[in-house]
Amino acid sequence: MSSVVLDKVTKVYPGGHLAVDRMSLKAENGEFLVLLGPSGCGKSTLLRMIAGLEEITRGDLWLDGELANHLAPRDRDVAMVFQNGALYPHRTVRGNMAFPLEIAKADPTKMRERVTELSKVLHIEETLERRPGTLSGGQRQRVAMGRAIVRQPKLFLMDEPLSNLDAGMRTELRMEISALVRSLGVTTIYVTHDQVEALTLADRIAILNRGVLQDVGTPAQIYNDPATAFVAAFLNSQQLNLLAATVHTPQNQYVLLDFGPHRLIIPWSDPRAYAISQYVGGQVLVGVRPDGLAPVPESYDGPAFFGRVRALEYHGHEWLAYIECGVPAVPVPEPPDRRVAAHGPEGPGRLGGMVRRLFGNREEREEQEQVGQHPGSGTHRRADLIVRLGGRPVWRANDAAKVGVDVSRLMLFRPDGSRIDTPRR
Ligand SMILES: Nc1ncnc2c1ncn2[C@@H]1O[C@H](COP(=O)(O)OP(=O)(O)O)[C@@H](O)[C@H]1O
Ligand SMILES: [Mg+2]
């Protein structure tokens, strides 16, 4: 078991590409930490730096309290499993799993016992004498995990180990990974772009975007109280409802979120009211997940939006409604893409130039970041509110719809997408 500390770890690839930007993070002894983020955000780069397969450009890596930047991979006592866990094709499953023990010159009887025992845990007992070519994808990944873990490393690193498997196998293996890793108590860092994997597996999730750490916390913390609108949106299986509102405090009676055609009242008794009122006269972003909204009858006089049903979507276990509510769509604010700036003062080169022409440079963009006039949103797309209806579509297309709002579920962000810190209820 091992603790892992990253202190402002940065990776600039040759050619100037900034893949990981000043990442500070700790995995506790025995913890299951998931690195989550969209493709290209730097997850694999980070994992490879921990394993010693990629050089750290700046910053420090500590393994078990020891500075490890320049430790050779074999001296880190780390095991790694990749997306398509390559196996030795001419060795049997047993031979593959025993390989790290053979290298370590383990006692043959003990080795045999250990592999047999682990194969039972991984449900691949009956394949031990077979070659990898005869196995299913799920079985091959089990063997790869077995081979990685057989020597009981201090640190287990997994890079999207399930992403090549079909959905059923993914679910099955997900539960087994969780059970295996927890029974061994080995510190694990697990990379995925799949929010369900992250939420179900992790003790804590660290979420990355464009090489920058966005948030870190338990699954419940980052789901219910995300640090940025990006995190809120990324952890949503449907699109996050994100609207801009102006803050008022009419006659100091309550805090009013004014969405144009819609208004929501936050009473002073609400513990978040004071923090929101600091933005009086200015704009905030209001996020609400589809399950924080619900159809209500016309006579309902609680907090609500209204609009027209543009479409209904059948998802098997539930219906979703898309409600046209007459306000502009707000793109989810993302951190500035510093990866372009990493090319140095002589300019960002051709691609960087193109990115700048498309999106404006950072200063221009910040000036434009008055909500609703985001660069690239020139079409003034209208927002749809997405509402979960459960198993029964209570509306039909084109119906007038009233949508009740669970005000306690509103997530409040500044126009740059960072959370407005409000006391938790
Ligand atoms: N060897 C490399 N040289 C240059 N750029 C790289 C190299 N490997 C990865 N990158 C770039 O670094 C960024 C992060 O890559 P990666 O860590 O693989 O992301 P992820 O695993 O999150 O998909 C990407 O933009 C990728 O193109
Ligand atoms: Mg990757």
How would you describe this protein?
With 425 residues, the chain is of the alpha+beta class. The protein folds into two domains: 4-226, P-loop containing nucleotide triphosphate hydrolases (Rossmann fold); 234-333 and 369-413, Nucleic acid-binding proteins (OB fold (Dihydrolipoamide Acetyltransferase, E2P)), CATH 2.40.50.140. The chain is 26% helix and 29% strand. The protein has a six-stranded mixed beta sheet, with helices on both faces. Strands 13-12-11-14-20 form a five-stranded antiparallel beta sheet. The longest helix is centred in the middle third of the chain and has 18 residues, at 167-184. The structure holds adenosine-5'-diphosphate (ADP) and magnesium ion. Magnesium ion binds next to helix 1. Residues 363-382 are annotated as: Disordered. It comes from Nonomuraea muscovyensis. Keywords: ATP-binding, Nucleotide-binding, Sugar transport, Transport. One of its GO terms (molecular function) is ABC-type transporter activity.
Kindly summarize this structure in a few lines.
With 425 residues, the chain is α+β, with helices and mostly antiparallel strands.
Give descriptors for this structure.
alpha+beta; Rossmann fold; OB fold (Dihydrolipoamide Acetyltransferase, E2P); 2 domains; 6-stranded mixed beta sheet; 12 helices; 20 strands; binds adenosine-5'-diphosphate
Secondary structure layout plus pairing:
Layout: E1 4-13, E2 17-27, E3 32-36, H1 43-51, E4 58-63, E5 66-67, E6 78-81, H2 93-103, H3 108-121, H4 137-149, E7 155-159, H5 167-184, E8 187-192, H6 195-201, E9 204-209, E10 212-217, H7 219-224, H8 229-234, E11 241-248, E12 255-258, E13 263-266, H9 273-277, E14 283-288, E15 293-295, E16 304-314, E17 319-328, H10 338-341, H11 349-359, H12 362-368, E18 382-390, E19 400-405, E20 411-413
Helix pairs in contact: 2-3, 2-4
The chain binds adenosine-5'-diphosphate (ADP) and magnesium ion (MG).
Magnesium ion (MG) is lined by residues 43-44, 159.
